[in-house]
Amino acid sequence: MSETKHNAKKFEEVTISSQPVFQGKVISLQVDTVRLPNGETAQREIVKHPGAVAVLALKDDKMLVVEQYRKPLEKSQVEIPAGKLDPGEAPLEAAIRELEEETGYRAGTIRPICSFYTSPGFANEILHLFAAEELTKGEVRLDDDEFLECEALTLEQAQQYIREGRISDAKTITAVYAWQAYTLTGRF
């Protein structure tokens, strides 16, 4: 048995019951009662999410970002284009869709960088990060409840935005560091 499989069993929490609490448009919340490895029980509050994509879009040595208001933070954020997966939608399809919807650009090449869980302590959301290059102008198609502005940042500007807190979300910070590695090594 591999080390990973062994540790998974060693630390596994077996679900005894699951109680739905909320079903929304984007997320659902449930409270699970679990049996811990030591035989005791505990409750886990779990946010279920369909998954999402984000796109590091590079044009003329600049990264395309969007600025929009984020109600949970009560402030505007500068982020890379991103959005949730539609039911049955492949991450690559969603990345292509979100890039054009939010920035008005289409990618000549688009490839995966990595996938990661955003908050595994309480949510199952997985985010798929893509790199898009060879961009050509398409058409912005924002959702009815989306209000944002698109701009292009140099790597130095993006790093400055991180220091200033204008960029403070994990997906965009991850993208900036991936871009930095790409400029140094030619690989994501």
UniProtKB/TrEMBL annotation:
<keyword id="KW-0378">Hydrolase</keyword>
<dbReference type="Pfam" id="PF00293">
    <property type="entry name" value="NUDIX"/>
</dbReference>
<dbReference type="InterPro" id="IPR020476">
    <property type="entry name" value="Nudix_hydrolase"/>
</dbReference>
<dbReference type="InterPro" id="IPR015797">
    <property type="entry name" value="NUDIX_hydrolase-like_dom_sf"/>
</dbReference>
<dbReference type="InterPro" id="IPR020084">
    <property type="entry name" value="NUDIX_hydrolase_CS"/>
</dbReference>
<feature type="domain" description="Nudix hydrolase">
    <location>
        <begin position="47"/>
        <end position="182"/>
    </location>
</feature>
<protein>
    <submittedName>
        <fullName>ADP-ribose pyrophosphatase</fullName>
        <ecNumber>3.6.1.13</ecNumber>
    </submittedName>
</protein>
<dbReference type="InterPro" id="IPR000086">
    <property type="entry name" value="NUDIX_hydrolase_dom"/>
</dbReference>
<dbReference type="GO" id="GO:0047631">
    <property type="term" value="F:ADP-ribose diphosphatase activity"/>
</dbReference>
<comment type="similarity">
    <text>Belongs to the Nudix hydrolase family.</text>
</comment>
